[in-house]
Design goal:
The protein is built from 4 helices and 4 strands; from the N terminus they run βαβαββαα. By secondary structure, the protein is an alpha+beta fold. Strand 3 and strand 4 form a beta hairpin. The chain binds glutathione (GSH).
């Protein structure tokens, strides 16, 4: 039996890359804990610390592993690594 991963995405309200990352993760059927850093300066500081100083959004973490932004998420999807991190079987649609 596989367990659902903890997926955290730091984002802002107007962010195309966040929308794309959200769409990809939603297609995978996983729950996302979204943290809006434009509404909370303390969370923005936390994002900076956890990501080693990355300032762009989104910043995505899967079970404490720092994935990075949308580009890195999509790259992991193309290699099939994302499904492994999300504990998914191989029948999930990948990014076109
Ligand atoms: N390559 C990054 C690009 C992320 C990006 O440029 N995000 C924009 C918002 S959609 C941003 O954070 N802009 C503010 C900045 O560059 O400081 C990714 O794939 O996530």
């Amino acid at each position: 039996m596989s367990t659902a991963p903890n997926v955290v995405m730091y984002s802002t309200a107007f962010c195309g890359f966040c929308q794309r990352a959200r769409g990809l993760l939603e297609r995978k059927g996983v729950d996302i804990q979204e943290i809006k850093v434009d509404e909370d300066a303390g969370e923005r500081e936390k994002m900076l610390k956890r990501s080693g100083g990355r300032r762009t959004v989104p910043q995505i973490f899967i079970d404490e592993r720092h994935v990075g932004g949308y580009d890195e998420l999509a790259a992991l999807d193309r290699t099939g690594e994302l499904d492994k991190l999300l504990n998914l079987k191989n029948d999930v649609k990948t990014e076109g």
